[in-house]
Write a structure and sequence with these properties.
Structural class: mainly beta
Number of helices: 0
Radius of gyration: 30 Å
Helix content: under 10%
Number of strands: 73
Strand content: over 45%
Shape: globular
């Protein structure tokens, strides 16, 4: 019998960029946090969407030490400051993982190598006894230690949390089920509760006394006999994590609230947390110190037993004041509150350990491993291990230090407030104080060789030295404004950036300065010249500008009204980095000019069993053509990308161009087919398009397809197939298991259906926030649940 299939196609529409090619390489995406583990009141870890964070000072400074790009780290546990385990899932819906670290989270290695669905929770008792649970009822345990994990059992439902009181006795909870093990997790049996709900967390104070949180009526389940009998209390608010410090004192995290008891759960106080969110994790170190982690990067700390809370902020999203690159791949950015961000590949930026809370104003890289940074109150710090750990050096001054410049690996200068100028001849280890003859603030330093250099400062101050800084003469800058930056390219050609968006230039070593540009609309904070005619500037409202005529005119390449860009550094005529507010770092690899080919749509359709791809370009430059590439995914296995055809391009064109390609591939049930375009220039350079997803659903089986688009805002489409007439229910649930929408609730004939879900049209007009949601299909005896993500 010939099978029938419904072809589901996800279409990507690409917007034409109105700006040149500047990309974010670091920005605050307000990711969710899922888990907390503190070893002491000061030393702890947080994990979440694509991020692993540590603190050594009780949350005063939070350091991102690992980016799990593409991974949601749902749970972590540590035995000490070096040995820990992280579990989670790849993206929102992808396969799960179990990772292990031996260096406090700097590096992670797989501890379970087989394919597995999402792993939701991990619990470590000691190095030889640990357990993890996840979707599909999967249960894992350490074997023989944390370096390696083995699959041991399958529970009756998706499992959300696990807790062991000793090597033998433990509990796990999930969708409507509580299970228990008395043999170290090898076998499990179900406990009867009388509650049919999603269970969120489980905690036991001893083998008998334990608690479970549930979504049904916001219930707390309590047992005093290890789980044989449960009492149920409706607490009237959302419940997630639960923890007891003793038989009397306990806490529950919820949505924007925590609950506290001091009488073993007989009564509970509800404490509202301003600016709170749904809290995914909670840990109290003792009766006073506690931490919360939740959605939208919300981290909180209490030092009074949960009565009041202060919000903790990630240091990497402080204002950045300076960026310096050693190459395309190596660089450092510094800023307020001692912020250090470092990269060894140009794209992935992680926190360095600066060990200061002073604002850092300038950074300079001496080589691939060594860098110096300076800041307020005479602060000088240096790193010699690829910019990770920084140690303080004695400056001998208390003035704010504003600018740092090295002419080679050994010799450098620092300029600061009150006419401060320092010099080092031993790569930043020691510094001597030079006499500048002024008390005016020095904001910028630039040298062209060991002898000749200039300083720029307040009140139009420009100083010049010809003996390495021992003696200085003042030059006429032709301005009384604050000079923010000064840069000389050789003995003669130099530029000065003056507050108010003014650019001055000299062609005779500073004897004469002339204003060549005056921006009337916004201020400029920094500039960087590659040569005497090519340079970039940055400043207020996120502006990045480029000049091709020595600073006389500037072309806007980027702007973002919500931020300021404070520092910019060009490596060559094409590669340039910029850093600014909120920890944002931008990069261009092609001089900031638009990509040669602007692709504005890429779609697919089905005709007579074939897949027809269509795409459109707005403009083309030097376009040889497009390779059409395809890969296939089935049963969680993905093939490699293969080229299935080529379409010649239009060379150079300013008019829209339309292309199509027919793929004769026959789709099969359960297959996911991905397409992409490889646009190739005549010189061999190329760019890839976004991926296009196609999937096939059988008309002869019950099937709930993944919604598309996903993530979505505000609406998404859901397809399902039923082989026989059935009463069908299709409902949407939030992360707590609360019903938020009913899409289908009626008898349906056999066939394939498509339903649209609009997040603005929900049960009781509930306003949905960004996050993970579930949609569930019930048809006859068939039940299937999938996850989707709403991003606003």
């Amino acid at each position: 019998m010939k099978a029938n299939f419904l072809l589901i196609i996800v279409i990507f529409l690409l917007n034409v960029s109105t700006y040149a090619q500047w990309d974010y390489v670091h920005n605050d995406q307000q990711n969710d946090f899922f888990s907390i583990k503190f070893l002491t009141e000061d030393t702890g870890y947080f994990s979440g969407e694509e991020r692993f964070v540590s603190t050594s000072d009780g949350g005063r400074y939070l350091t991102t030490i690992n980016h799990f790009y593409g991974y949601d780290v749902l749970s972590i546990d540590f035995l000490n400051q070096t040995d820990g385990v992280a579990v989670g899932r790849y993206y929102y819906l992808g396969p799960g993982f179990i990772f292990h670290t031996t260096d406090g989270g700097q590096n992670w290695n797989p501890a379970y190598n087989d394919f597995v669905s999402s792993v939701n929770d991990v619990f470590l008792l000691d190095n030889e006894h640990g357990w993890a649970v996840g979707d599909g009822g999967n249960i894992f345990k350490t074997y023989p230690n944390m370096n390696w994990w083995t699959y041991v059992a399958s529970g009756p439902t998706d499992l959300n949390a696990v807790f062991f009181i000793n090597q033998n006795t433990g509990w796990a909870v999930g969708w409507g089920k509580i299970i228990k093990s008395t043999d170290g997790g090898d076998t499990w049996f179900e406990l009867q509760t009388g509650v049919n709900s999603k269970f969120n967390d489980v905690f036991f104070i001893n083998e008998n006394n334990g608690w479970v949180t549930a979504n049904d009526n916001n219930s707390l389940l309590h047992t005093t006999d290890g789980g044989n009998i449960w009492s149920v209390t409706n607490l009237g608010t959302v419940l997630s994590k639960v923890q007891f410090l003793s038989d009397s004192v306990g806490f529950i995290a919820g949505s924007g609230k925590i609950l506290k008891t001091v009488d073993g759960g007989l009564t509970w106080d509800i404490i509202t947390i301003p600016d709170g969110t749904y809290f995914n994790s909670m840990q109290f170190i003792n009766e006073n110190s506690g931490y919360l982690a939740g959605g939208y990067e919300r981290l909180f700390k209490s030092t009074d037993g949960g009565e009041t809370w202060i919000r903790l902020m990630l240091g990497e999203f402080n204002k950045l004041k300076s960026i310096h690159m050693n190459s395309v791949n190596g660089g450092v950015a510094v800023g307020e509150d001692g912020t250090i961000l470092k990269t060894i590949n140009g794209s992935d930026w992680l926190s360095g350990f600066s060990n200061t809370y002073q604002k850092l104003n300038s950074v300079y890289l001496l080589d691939d491993a060594t860098a110096v940074a300076v800041g307020d109150s005479g602060k000088i710090i240096k790193s010699s291990d690829s910019y990770l750990n920084w140690e303080e050096k004695n400056s001998g001054v208390s003035s704010n230090l504003n600018s740092l410049f090295f002419i080679n690996r050994n010799i450098g200068w620092i300029g600061g407030n009150n006419g401060t100028l320092l010099k080092s001849t031993d790569n930043g280890e020691t510094w001597i104080i030079l006499n500048t003859g002024t008390t005016v603030n020095i904001n910028s330093v630039s040298f062209v060789d060991l002898s000749k250099g200039w300083c720029g400062g307040d009140n139009g101050l420009i100083l010049k030295t010809t003996d390495g800084g021992l003696n200085w003469i003042q030059q006429n800058s032709n301005t009384t404004g604050k000079i923010r930056a000064i840069e000389f390219l050789d003995t003669y050609i130099g530029f000065a950036l003056v507050e108010g968006g003014k650019v001055f230039r000299t062609d005779n070593g500073g004897n004469d300065w002339n204003m060549i540009h005056d921006d009337q609309y916004y201020d400029l904070y920094d500039f960087s010249f590659y040569n005497s005619w090519l340079g970039w500037s940055c400043g207020q409202y996120g502006h990045i500008n480029r000049t091709l005529n020595g600073g006389s005119t500037w072309i806007q390449q980027f702007s973002s009204p919500s931020i300021n860009i404070n520092s910019i550094y060009s490596i060559d005529d094409e590669v340039c980095y910029a850093a600014g507010d909120n920890g944002i770092i931008f990069r261009t690899l092609n001089g900031g000019v638009p990509l040669p080919v602007e692709l504005i749509s890429f779609t697919a359709s089905q005709q007579s069993g074939r897949i027809i791809l269509n795409w459109e370009t707005a403009t083309e430059l030097n376009n040889l053509g497009f390779e059409v590439q395809r890969k296939i995914e089935k049963d969680n296995f993905q093939s490699e990308w293969v080229t299935i055809g080529f379409k010649p391009g239009s060379g150079t064109s300013s008019e829209p161009k339309f292309y199509n390609f027919i793929d004769e591939l026959k789709t099969n049930f359960g297959e996911f087919i991905y397409y992409r375009l490889k646009q190739i220039d005549f010189n061999g350079e190329f760019e890839y398009s976004d991926e296009l997803l196609v999937g096939a659903v059988s008309l002869e089986k019950y099937y709930l397809f993944q919604n598309y688009p996903n993530p979505f805002n505000p609406s998404t489409k859901i397809n399902y197939s039923i082989p026989v007439n059935s009463f069908v229910q299709l409902k949407i649930y939030d992360l707590l298991g609360t019903e938020v929408a009913v899409l289908v609730n009626e008898e349906k004939q056999a066939g394939v259906y498509e339903v649209e879900f609009n997040s603005q049209q929900t049960t009781k007009n509930k306003q949905l926030s960004s996050g993970v949601y579930y949609y569930q299909l019930k048809a006859g005896e068939f039940v299937q649940t999938r996850k989707m993500i709403l991003i606003k």
